[in-house]
């Protein structure tokens, strides 16, 4: 019985796995994960008539191979990031039908074991539970691992990163956490509850200049959110410097990012067009993950004394090793 369970965990559905092997052999596809539903991606082009050189026509198999290539370059990406990279490479058109097609390919690819499930992330949905432990030693080890002094105590600024797109949290958090910086994610405009919670953090850093590094879409609402954040904190008696890191108009030109029509019904459309001289929108997801990660790091490092920050990190490591020897005799 144990052997059957192991096989199931590694291979998925045995019958579907065997079918996928045959499909993979015929198409040159490698299985890299458990197979729950076999899939034969078509190598045929669409039957539609291509009447414009701007209209792309790519087979489902080629779309899968291109998506696999993109995913292999990153530890984790969102579906939208894969889509926008494909658009930037001029592999597919920038429209809703192609986006839905990418969704189908990534879904079928994962179920067929051709794409690792863990490589595609979605932080718009999550499950939570209090951690469980096998022993007191395990929880003590975890507590020691999690110990961290306040690295920013002696820094001239209190810095936080605020992100409009919750779906990108798992890309941002490992970076912000590595610098001991708060990451505040939203699904659009921040709520008063989140602003009030930030007020408590700001009060604890009384005397420090307050800075928020903002990342959001380039569209009427996304470019208005920094103003909204400033106004909310001003109402509570705080002057906060909100630095717009991304997206900017320069990003669009420098990285040749795909654009979408901005929402004409947005009440801020006229203000947006007059200020930025554009009538299109670009999502933060369109920025290649590597570039986005570099922007996060550069923005944080520009606001701190790195030598002081890393000295605290080294000192924390020394203290952890001491506690392991003293408490756990490890």
Describe this structure in words.
This protein has 330 residues and is an alpha/beta fold. The protein folds into two domains: 2-119, no CATH class; 156-304, 3-Layer(aba) Sandwich (Dna Topoisomerase Vi A Subunit, Chain: A, domain 2). It has helices spanning 2-11, 14-27, 60-72, 79-88, 96-111, 136-146, 169-178, 192-204, 220-235, 249-255, 269-276, 289-301, 306-327, and strands at residues 157-163, 182-185, 209-215, 240-246, 260-261, 280-281. Strands 2-1-3-4 form a four-stranded parallel β-sheet, sandwiched between helices. It has a two-stranded antiparallel sheet with strand order 5-6. Helix 3 (60-72) packs across helix 5, helix 4 (79-88) packs across helix 5 (96-111) and helix 7 (169-178) runs parallel beside helix 12 (289-301). The longest helix is centred in the C-terminal third of the chain and has 22 residues, at 306-327. It is flat, with a radius of gyration of 24 Å. It starts with a helix and ends with a helix. The model is unreliable at 1-8 and 49-53 (pLDDT under 50).
